[in-house]
Amino acid sequence: MADPETIITVQDLSSGYDKARVLQDVSFEVKRGEILAIIGKSGCGKTTLLKNMLGLIPYQSGSIRIFDTEVADRENMEKRRIQKRMGVLFQRGALLNSMTVGENVALPLEMHTRKSRKEIGKIVFEKLDLVRLYYAHHKFPTQLSGGMVKRAALARAMALDPEILLCDEPSAGLDPVTTKHLDGLLLDLKTRFSMTIIIVTHDILSIERTADRIIMLDQHRIVYNDTAKSIRISHVQALRDFFLMPQEGNGVNGRETI
To answer: Which of 74, 192, 201, 212 is the most buried (most CB within 10 A)?
Structure first.
């Protein structure tokens, strides 16, 4: 019997582009209400995995089940309903520059619900207030700082009250103070709404602050899948290199984290 707390199951997933294999036999589960960080060097398949989970690109073999619905089943109407239960924070925000912040946040509601203009306006204000950006309702994306763009994009990702939030390099291009603020918002979402959050990231400090569990991809496969606290005792070399942890007897070389 399936664990009711497991809302994402990836089993023996292989994926790539044309003949190039990016992911090979990848398997893991995601529990309800946890923050999972997916890490690894550039080109290891992190974003490909995220796109596979969203159903944006097909995978070659294996299975991805979200809320017990197979992502590859493109004819399944239930899959479309599942996608509405997922929010996405894109790396560069992906806001439409021709629309105001408020209009950007309203877009998913206008596309996927039959709510009135008044109802949508109320929700937009609530979501912008959630990310502390209510005052920027009438601004255009080009008038915002990088951190404000990410917060506005987060508000849009939250418009349909998703149960799962997927974030692709949320701290990319942000200064450390703004990144810490964004991390705090993600932690707040987890606490307040029991939200499941998957974060693809290179940011070590952000991983330390937010992640309950870490998956590391290397050479097309998962080489680490455990809690953040277990990193200290891991002997996976790729993981130790990523976190610049010293080997035994190396003294102060590198930086030990977590």
So the answer is: 201
- Residues in the chain, total: 258
Give the residue extent of every domain in the chain.
93-161
> Residue 76 phi/psi, 5° resolution?
-80, 120
> In angstroms, rounded to a whole number, what is the distance separating the alpha carbons of residues 172 and 231?
23
Quick one: pLDDT band at residue 155, thresholds 50, 70, 90? very high
Long-range contacts of 143-150 (CB under 8 A, 24+ apart): 144/101, 145/178, 146/173, 146/174, 146/178, 147/174, 147/175, 147/178, 147/181, 147/182, 149/92, 149/93, 149/95, 150/89, 150/93, 150/174, 150/178, 150/182
The residue type found at 253 is N
pLDDT tens digits along 97-127: 999 999 999 999 998 888 999 999 999 999 9
Tokens of 188: 């707040």
Query: How far apart are the C-alpha atoms of 187 and 108, rounded to whole Å?
Result: 23
Separation CA 151–CA 170 (nearest Å): 10
